[in-house]
Amino acid sequence: MAFANSLLSSSSSPSQIPHGSKDFNSTPLIISPHERSAFTFSPIRNKFSELGIGVIGSSRKKNILYASVNDLNASASSTSLDADSVPMPVVLIDQDSDSDATIVQLSFGDRLGALIDTMNALKHLGLDVAKGTVLTDGPVKQTKFFITRLDTGRKVEDPDMLERIRLTIINNLLKYHPESSERLAMGEAFGIKAPEKKLDVDITTHVHVKEDGPKRSLLCIETADRPGLLVEIIKIIADVNIDVESAEIDTEGLVAKDKFHVSYRGAALTSSLSQVLVNCLRYYLRRPETDIDSY
């Protein structure tokens, strides 16, 4: 099931950078390592497209991020970390706000570095970063990238590739910020410290279909995160013969909060079809494990 090429347009163009942000296409950003978040962009060319790589979080302790030429992801430096001090990691994949690019937003409080290794990992997936911005909002640093496919120059529409993007970013977050493992579902298998509390899939799973005009409906899903989740959701939707026009994939710690613009034969879902879709998704998502073999 491929996403439609024509997506919603954003009210503001990517070139309109909000106050307090830095545009990676402009002069390289150099900040003193004594500041709260330190970057070293001087060896980087103004365009990130030659390198090839989400909004909530807080930290009670001061953390200094040091970035060097050899490791520009930068990991947090702190004398001690406790559960309350680790901010919420958020990875958001937005297919709606830009018609030409897939927008990826990454946030982990104020601990993120330049994420160069993450961008290189995405380049190895055949992707390009056309533009990027960093926005600092209080204690939260939000990094936003505009991603396209290297072969076509267009946004990513394949659900399998979108899931690979999500898992690649989370994997690098676990690697360069190992303390994030206690706030991520993948931390149980791949992190240094598993989350202290496991989510009850039955309790955390919520599925709703809302009106979104005469030609499409808005499907909202909230459930416990796990590898392969996005691909599983897309397969279930396809099995009911419903088309996915666009999506927003939001990973907030242990929870996945996804939104899909869906339609049936070019029209919004009827109440009966909506109920069928909701019942199918609730049944499959509440299973303890996914059947996706490729992850």
Characterise the protein shown here.
The chain is α+β, with helices and mostly antiparallel strands and 295 residues long. It has 2 domains: 21-76 and 83-190, no CATH class; 201-285, Alpha-Beta Plaits, CATH 3.30.70. 20% of the residues lie in helices and 24% in strands. The chain is built from 6 helices and 11 strands. The chain has helices at 116-123, 159-176, 187-190, 201-204, 229-239, 271-285; strands spanning 21-23, 64-65, 76-77, 90-94, 102-107, 127-137, 140-149, 206-211, 217-224, 243-252, 255-263. A 9-stranded antiparallel sheet has the order 1-6-7-5-4-10-11-9-8. A two-stranded antiparallel sheet has the order 2-3. The longest helix has 18 residues, at 159-176.
Features:
295 residues, alpha+beta, Alpha-Beta Plaits, 2 domains, nine-stranded antiparallel β-sheet, two-stranded antiparallel sheet, disordered C terminus
